[in-house]
Write a structure and sequence with these properties.
Length: about 700
């Protein structure tokens, strides 16, 4: 923290080194403050990972911090009965009512939804997890089952542990292939890519090639050596074709058998993925596919990543399975020039003892026993039915907005409004806080100390960072750990580590046990202004410590069954019609950053994007349109977008108007292996609903 020159010759400002906690990239920031005002956030040029880069979301943190939507005071009561309350009154009422519910119906009557906001609050997330575990409730739901459950599922079934996250070896890779991923905007999906434009330029400057497979000509595709604009939902066929053609070589297949099981079973499941079928279903020329195959063979090892474009689709598990298969077949996992697995500076996974998991799920919630329980949680698809059945009577929402994230929007609203207790811990007002019985205003990331804990293993290096609070908490905001810790103590247990009391705790004391496990230690991280990089990519520990019998499992039967089903239906993929696909926005994200912008920037308007061949017959840009799926509809305004495949329509997620989740179903379009509600590849129909919007 340093004093700097003033703008007006009066009170000096201060500069603070911290890191952004909006997405996985964790970019370094310099935040300028004057008193309790946050004046500016900009990139920190001394930060080893982000190197001065930060996106518009990070630069908008001052606007978010001072947003008129900030929650400043505890509130109780619904609708017209909503009133500002003291912390003592709110916590006393919440604790007493939770105690009554647990006494009447048991701990499973209390559920918790942990969303993205909690993922970037180390002490708060750890307290929330401890709270639910100590209470004894199985009713845990997280954002993992919203858009990415295929990744931990395939990691567990193929690699033996759900927490394995492949990371691009950006310093050695000769070929990077992206499937449904746009890191220039998203900064990676699970995998973190800070400073993405320059990282990709450096990759190409070293002689590496970049291919993008996506039905949309994204910002990343525009920078690629080659963009294969596939028909939406057909990405998996490109991967399947590559794997099949590689395994057609007997020498390659023999080599793969030495490092993996199920090789022949996988090849048999891909028997129908031939040139003609793949070309017809993807819309690609056979010559384009052959060129990609040649690029893979020339590179030897390949780096490939998927994003929400594939992970939210009906074939999410198939695509991710084949992505892992491509890496295993080319000996690219846990190997230089391919993908590595970050053990984490704080997690230190390479020092642990591992027992490979079978990947078998437990039963779902009582109202939806067919849904799988994996990773210690139930799918979000089952929460509303649990409320409707009376099994859940209290819901704690930590850093999330189920109204805009869950399917069946009207049904979700009714269920949340029916709860005797809906307690929401957040930093801004949302559609969910409007339905809450208890609103607990939380500190934002500039008002608390933190460390890179939950996202430790997603980074491009073995690195970590600790940051102190930049400013003191404003109004009556409190840390999430303080709120949940106080309720827990009122219920007779502790939500804090080592049973430390809330009165004796602080951000620093709660984070010290995490920092102590790191390679750098407590002093090493707390004393570093811009984070610590312990090393670049490391290799071999997954082969040595994690893999079942030292080999990958390519023949997991649940995955093969879905692959066989997809292969059998591949011929029909060319005639699926118009479908919904997702996209990310550069400046806005979910609920918190929808209407704030960095200085000189602008917020983004959500439109219904369609290819001109679809959009122009409906009217000019701004025309009111209705998008209809088998399960619902939404109203929006049209934008012709020639970057899209003609069969694709896209609307940004995270908004209430329009709300993409209106087009989805928790009952009829759910993946059986993960319980994820399908949000991409949904068949839709567009029609004009009114004249153009003059704005």
């Amino acid at each position: 923290m340093t004093a700097g020159p003033t703008d007006d010759g009066a009170v000096p400002h201060e500069e603070h080194r911290t890191f952004c906690r909006i997405c996985n990239a964790m970019c370094g920031l310099v935040v300028r403050t004057r008193g309790d005002r946050v004046l500016e956030a900009r990139g920190n040029r001394d930060h080893a990972l982000s190197r001065g880069y930060t996106c518009p979301k990070g630069r908008a943190l001052p606007a978010l911090h001072h947003s008129p939507r900030r929650l400043d005071h505890p509130q109780m009561g619904r609708g017209g009965a909503r009133r500002t309350a003291s912390w003592d009154d709110l916590l006393g009422d919440l604790t007493g009512r939770l105690a009554e519910i647990v006494a009447e119906d048991g701990p499973d009557a209390v559920a918790m939804y942990l969303a993205s906001g909690s993922a970037f609050d180390s002490a708060g997330r750890r307290a929330a997890e401890r709270f639910l575990a100590a209470l004894g409730s199985r009713q845990k739901y997280t954002a993992t089952t919203i858009d990415t459950p295929c990744k931990p599922l395939v990691a567990e079934l193929v690699g033996g542990w759900s927490g394995l996250t492949p990371v691009w070896d950006h310093e050695r890779s000769r070929l990077l292939v992206l499937f449904g991923s746009n890191p220039i905007v998203s900064h990676g999906h699970s995998n973190a890519i800070p400073d993405p434009v320059n990282r990709l330029r450096e990759h190409r400057a070293r002689g590496g090639r970049l291919w993008v497979v996506d039905p949309r000509r994204t910002e990343t595709a525009a920078q690629a050596d080659r963009h294969l604009q596939v028909r939406p939902g057909s990405d998996w066929l490109v991967l399947g074709w590559l794997v099949r053609r590689l395994l057609d070589d007997p020498t390659v297949r023999d080599d793969v058998r030495r490092r993996a099981t199920g090789v022949d079973e996988l090849a048999a499941a891909l028997a129908g993925v031939d040139d003609a079928t793949v070309a017809a279903a993807t819309g690609l020329e056979t010559a384009e596919l052959a060129e990609l195959l040649a690029a893979v063979r020339e590179a030897g090892r390949v780096s490939a990543l998927t994003g929400t474009g594939t992970s939210m689709a009906p074939t999410a598990n198939v695509t991710e399975h084949l992505l892992w298969a491509l890496h295993v077949v080319t000996d690219s996992y846990d190997r230089p020039g391919g993908m590595w697995f970050n053990p984490g500076m704080l997690s230190r996974l390479d020092t642990r003892r591992w027992e490979p998991a079978s990947g078998a799920p437990d039963a779902g919630p009582p109202s939806r026993p067919e849904l799988p329980r994996r990773f210690g949680e139930w799918p979000c698809a089952g929460l509303v039915s649990e409320i409707e059945a009376g099994h859940v009577r209290a819901l704690l929402v930590v850093g999330g907005n189920p109204v805009t994230a869950f399917p069946d929007v009207a049904r979700t609203r009714r269920a949340l409004a029916s709860l005797p207790i809906l307690a929401v811990l957040d930093v801004v007002d949302t559609e969910t806080t409007e339905l809450a019985t208890h609103v607990l205003p939380a500190v934002d990331q500039l008002e608390r100390a933190d460390t890179t804990w939950l996202l430790d293993t997603y980074q491009l290096a073995v690195a970590g960072q600790y940051t102190a609070a930049v400013v003191a908490p404003g109004a009556e905001r409190r840390p999430v750990w303080w709120s949940l810790g106080t309720v827990a103590e009122g219920l007779g247990f502790s939500a804090l580590p080592r049973d430390v009391s809330v009165a004796d705790a602080s951000d620093q004391t709660l984070l010290e046990p995490v920092l102590a496990r790191s390679v750098a230690g407590v002093d090493g991280l707390q004393g570093a202004a811009s984070g610590v990089v312990a090393s670049g990519a490391v290799f071999g520990w997954v082969h040595d410590r994690v893999l079942p019998d030292g080999r990958w499992r390519l023949g997991a039967e649940p995955l093969l069954e879905q692959l066989r089903d997809a292969s059998a239906a591949a011929g029909a993929a060319a005639s699926t019609g118009t479908v919904l696909v997702p996209h990310r926005q550069l400046r806005t994200m979910n609920s918190q950053l929808r209407d704030v912008a960095a200085p000189g920037g602008r917020t983004e308007t959500v439109r219904v994007h369609a290819h001109p061949t679809v959009a122009v017959p409906l009217g000019p840009d701004g025309t009111a349109v209705t998008v209809t799926s088998p399960w619902g509809e939404l109203a929006g305004t049209l934008r012709a977008d020639d970057r899209l495949h003609p069969d694709a329509v896209t609307v940004a997620h995270g908004w209430d108007d329009p709300n993409v989740c209106s087009l989805t179903s928790a009952d009829e379009a759910v993946d059986p292996l993960t319980g994820m509600v399908v949000q991409s590849g949904v068949p839709v129909r567009l029609r004009a609903a009114g004249p153009p919007d003059p704005s």
